[in-house]
Amino acid sequence: MKRTIFYLIMLLLTANLNASVIVIGDLLREHEANPGDKYQEEILLRNTSDNAEEVSVFITDYQTFADGQAFFDKQPGLRSNAPWISLDGQRFLVPAKSMVKVDLKISIPNKALEGSFWSCVMIENSPAKMGGGTVVVDIVNRYAVQVVTHIKKTGKKVIEFLNTSFDRETKTLSCDIENAGTRHFRALLWAELRTGNKRPLRFLTPMKSLYPGSSVRYSLELPALGPGKYLARLFIDSGHEGETWSKDFWLSF
Q: pTM score, two decimals?
């Protein structure tokens, strides 16, 4: 009887308790430096299971788009710092109930550079088999640790509003944003919904990473309001003074 094997990769951009080997700490690592500088990062891995687990470590590029697509190319792009990063190994055995450290050394080229450069260090466990009979699924948990190098005192943050829409059925306001600049930053979207003479209603989203040349989608679920047209004033806010971008959008209930 022929067995069919499916290979399922679960990409973890946040902590996941289903993985036996987990990454301790933030999955976004940022550092400011000058051309010619060298610095180090470390990634701590913890094995929560009763058995030793082997993981592989490799580097990819990382780019996202507002339509949900994400690309993890192994070929470095123009804003990749992958060629600057050296790992102290590619495979690690993590003993049961123990921790292992992965060391990264980042060497920045001594030349004119501007803005932010980044890549992902991927932590991938050995496949775990699920199922039986004629169908077997290999499940792989993969963490993506984003490593961002900011060149000190350089780069611009430029926001472009790509598309704004309102779904009347789900009462969801969506706003697609692109970072058209050269510096990575994190920002949230908040909206003021004006309802006649009453005080504006305010809504906000969680922070999202905005990489140069990439785009993200912010979504807000709004309350039910009476029939009519309403003005929503949208703000992209990095949390730093003078770094707020706004747009007005009319929506109908």
A: 0.87
- Note whether 37 and 124 are same-domain residues: yes
Both tokens of 199, joined, read 């005080």
Closest of 90, 156, 81 to residue 119, by C-alpha? 81
How many domains, the chain?
Answer: 2
Shared domain check, 210 and 88: no
Task: Select from 102, 123, 151 the last residue of a domain.
Answer: 151
Q: Which burial class, exposed, middle or buried, applies to 179 when counting CB atoms under 10 A from its CB (0-12, 13-18, 19+)?
A: buried
Q: List per-residue pLDDT tens for the chain, 253 residues long.
A: 344 333 344 455 554 445 689 999 999 999 999 999 999 999 999 999 999 999 999 999 999 999 999 999 988 899 999 999 999 999 999 999 999 999 999 999 999 999 999 999 999 987 665 555 555 566 778 899 999 999 999 999 999 999 999 999 999 999 999 999 999 999 999 999 987 777 888 999 999 999 999 999 999 999 888 888 889 999 999 988 889 999 999 998 8
